């Protein structure tokens, strides 16, 4: 549904708000498509200087809507899976505008891995971060296997991506992928302040400097495709089938 995502421009800042509270902002294929378009259309728009992604107060996103995700299927050819979710990751990899995330609550799966593409991440004390890919018999995605170790170091990245360790907002700040921890309900206001501060800087200098300090889009896309191919293979594995069966049995119970 279109009302599950709100895109609004305000004084040089494009705010992308996930708004599906009854499902903890779980992401559907349509939401991914609309987020991709919001990011891509900003690239050649000089009026958009900065992007903010938020889930509103109380939650960021519970990650993939698993029912919708499974219906999307996998590519049977053995090539990288090009789903709406993968296309969203491509949009993040090619994004040239400063990107800020306001996280107030759950950030699960891609809700956490997308943060490694952000330039500023603000989290409330109620925020938690988890990547339960292995528990579902899958592998990390979103180039997180590349970006997380660079940000957190190998050991912390292994604990989160492989062991499934959940991090609090303060632990995420200590790990290096959260800039600041603020009271609940304050993340959006602080994100907008950070966005305005960035908008006040010389635009070309910001763009060049951002490009210098981030991995190249080609490097990110190569890792996204590698992960995606393995992810698709794992979706058909007995481990994943068993894990998903148990998950949906618990959900029905």
Automatic annotation (TrEMBL):
It comes from the Bacteria. Keywords: Isomerase, Peroxisome. Pfam families: ECH_1. It is found in: Peroxisome. Its main location: other. SUPFAM superfamilies: ClpP/crotonase. One of its GO terms (molecular function) is delta(3)-delta(2)-enoyl-CoA isomerase activity. Belongs to the enoyl-CoA hydratase/isomerase family. PANTHER family: ENOYL-COA DELTA ISOMERASE 2, PTHR43684. This is Crotonase/enoyl-CoA hydratase family protein. It comes from Rhodopseudomonas palustris. The lineage of its organism: Bacteria, Pseudomonadati, Pseudomonadota, Alphaproteobacteria, Hyphomicrobiales.
């Amino acid at each position: 549904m279109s009302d599950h995502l709100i895109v609004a421009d305000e004084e040089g800042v494009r705010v992308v708000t996930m708004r599906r509270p009854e499902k903890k902002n779980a992401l559907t294929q349509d939401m991914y498509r609309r987020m991709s378009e919001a990011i891509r259309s900003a690239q050649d728009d000089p009026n958009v200087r900065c992007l903010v992604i938020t889930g509103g107060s109380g939650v960021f996103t519970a990650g993939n809507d698993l029912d919708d995700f499974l219906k999307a299927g996998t590519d049977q050819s053995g090539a990288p899976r090009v789903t709406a979710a993968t296309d969203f990751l491509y949009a993040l990899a090619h994004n040239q505008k400063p990107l800020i995330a306001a996280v107030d609550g759950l950030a699960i799966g891609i809700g956490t891995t997308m943060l490694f593409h952000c330039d500023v991440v603000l989290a409330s004390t109620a925020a938690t971060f988890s990547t339960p890919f292995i528990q579902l018999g899958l592998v990390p995605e979103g180039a997180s296997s590349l970006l997380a170790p660079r940000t957190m170091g190998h050991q912390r990245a292994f604990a989160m991506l492989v062991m499934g360790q959940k991090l609090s907002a303060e632990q995420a700040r200590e790990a290096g992928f959260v800039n600041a921890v603020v009271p609940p309900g304050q993340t959006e206001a602080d994100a907008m302040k950070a966005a305005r501060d960035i908008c006040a800087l010389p635009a070309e200098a910001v763009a060049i400097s951002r490009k210098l300090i981030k991995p190249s889009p080609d490097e990110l896309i190569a890792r996204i495709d590698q992960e995606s191919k393995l992810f698709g293979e794992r979706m058909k594995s007995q481990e994943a089938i068993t894990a998903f069966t148990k998950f949906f049995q618990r959900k029905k119970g």
